[in-house]
Write a structure and sequence with these properties.
The protein is an alpha+beta fold. It has one domain (20-320). Helix content is 26%, strand content 22%. The chain is built from 11 helices and 14 strands. The strands form 4 sheets. Strands 7, 10, 11, 12, 13 and 14 form a 6-stranded antiparallel sheet that branches. A 4-stranded antiparallel sheet has the order 2-5-1-6. A two-stranded antiparallel sheet has the order 3-4. Strand 3 (90-91) and strand 4 form a beta hairpin. The longest helix is centred in the middle third of the chain and has 15 residues, at 113-127. The structure holds protoporphyrin IX containing FE. Residues 147, 149, 151, 153-156, 185, 187, 206, 208, 226-227, 230-231, 242, 244, 259, 261, 263, 271, 274-275, 290, 294 line the site of protoporphyrin IX containing FE.
Length: 348
């Protein structure tokens, strides 16, 4: 990639749509030792990105780290992003969106599957027995960005200036500005049932044509298409977008076909409302028919801090240091610096 400077930086929520992705969800073991290991490894994720990503800059390796509410409170007690809380199970009349455990999400993307693999291998090696893997899903781009239902997926994503304003927290929560809420759900499809619907019916379920991806007019109701149920507009007509980077995954030999849903948002309530409209229905009772052939098997919410905020988690917050049993008195440098050497002193 001539002229492109090292495109390696952690927490690039807006990293380009990649050919491959790994969605890795882990829980962190109890106890100070495991927490310290997380503090040592996770804030330094951009160093690991350089280690692996520099070997092929054109492959555009990136990783976004998401932190669940429970772990956030262990790492940074007393200072939680305004909307962060655990995923709440949504029970509709027919379908349920289950809540499943997860303290850390690693959304690893690259143009080469070996870079994703290598990054994940080294990462898990460093985390060691401080974490337990809950789910590891390897996604791939399928033709022209289609999901395994055969539809082009991701078209209505925000672009340009709309992208940061839809995904990154701003002045409304200044301590966490530049961060993003992330929700993941792993869906398994019944492709046999989907195939029996026929193309015309499938298009009505999604709200776009299958071959050429053209948006269809809304049905008069009460049964709305997926794209309509997932559109959130407030009383003043303002539309609230999220950024999706869904990926297909599967193992035909095991009859496993799925979509890994991942959504980044500045406003968690927007994504939660989309889910409610899909599972409970809008109007109530008219759920998203995508769910009749797609079963959500996981559901977890995370906060992806900006890279500076992520790096700051390497140091316990003052509140954490005070509450830690037998915590040594913090050594305060006379100059008010962190007292960890001139190399780390910020430029004045
Ligand atoms: C089985 C899982 C899912 C599949 C296969 C799927 C597939 C699709 C497809 C094919 C489209 C139309 C093209 C596009 O604009 O991307 C779409 C649109 C969309 N989906 Fe999904 N989706 C899934 C789950 C979800 C979930 C869980 C959410 C949010 C909670 C969501 C939010 C959206 C949004 C916001 C749009 C764009 C609506 C618009 O403004 O036109 N999707 N999805």
């Amino acid at each position: 990639m001539v002229g492109e400077r090292v495109p390696i930086d952690a927490q690039r929520v807006d990293a380009p749509l990649s050919r491959f992705a790994v969605f890795l969800v882990v829980t962190v073991e109890d106890g100070d030792e495991a927490l310290q290991r997380v503090r040592d490894v996770v804030p330094a994720v951009d160093d690991l990105l350089k280690t692996v990503g520099f070997r092929d800059l054109g492959a555009d390796l990136s990783c976004v780290v998401g932190i669940g509410a429970r772990l956030w409170d262990r790492l940074s007690p007393g200072a939680r992003p305004a909307e962060l809380h655990e995923f709440e199970t949504i029970v509709g009349a027919v379908h349920t969106a289950p809540a499943t455990p997860g303290d850390l999400l690693f959304h690893i993307r690259a143009e080469r599957v070996d870079l994703c693999f290598e990054f994940e291998r080294l990462l898990l090696g460093s985390l060691g027995d401080a974490v337990r893997v809950v789910d590891e899903t390897q996604g791939f781009r399928y033709f022209d960005a289609r999901d395994l239902l055969g539809f082009v997926d991701g078209t209505a994503n925000p672009i340009g200036a709309e992208l940061p304003s839809a995904t990154l927290i701003g002045d409304e929560d200044p301590a966490f500005a530049g961060g993003s809420y992330v929700v993941v759900q792993k869906y398994l499809h019944d492709l046999g049932a989907w195939g029996r619907l026929g193309t015309h019916e499938q298009e009505a379920v999604i709200g776009r044509t299958k071959a050429d991806n053209v948006e269809l007019d809304d049905a008069p109701g009460p049964q709305f298409a997926h794209k309509t149920l997932a559109t959130i507009v407030d009383a003043d007509g303002e539309e609230f977008d999220i950024l999706r980077d869904n990926m297909p995954f599967g193992r035909p030999g095991r009859d496993e076909f799925g979509t890994y849903f991942i959504g980044y948002t500045r406003r968690l309530w927007v994504l939660e409302l989309m889910l409610r409209r899909m599972f409970v229905g809008e109007p109530v009772g008219y759920h998203d028919r995508i769910l009749d052939v797609s079963t959500a098997v996981t559901g977890t919410t995370f906060f992806a801090p900006s890279n500076p905020t992520l790096r700051a988690l390497a140091q316990p917050t003052p509140a954490a240091a005070e509450t830690a049993p037998d915590a040594p008195e913090p050594a305060e440098a006379a100059d008010g610096s962190l007292g960890i050497g001139a190399l780390r002193t910020p430029p004045s």
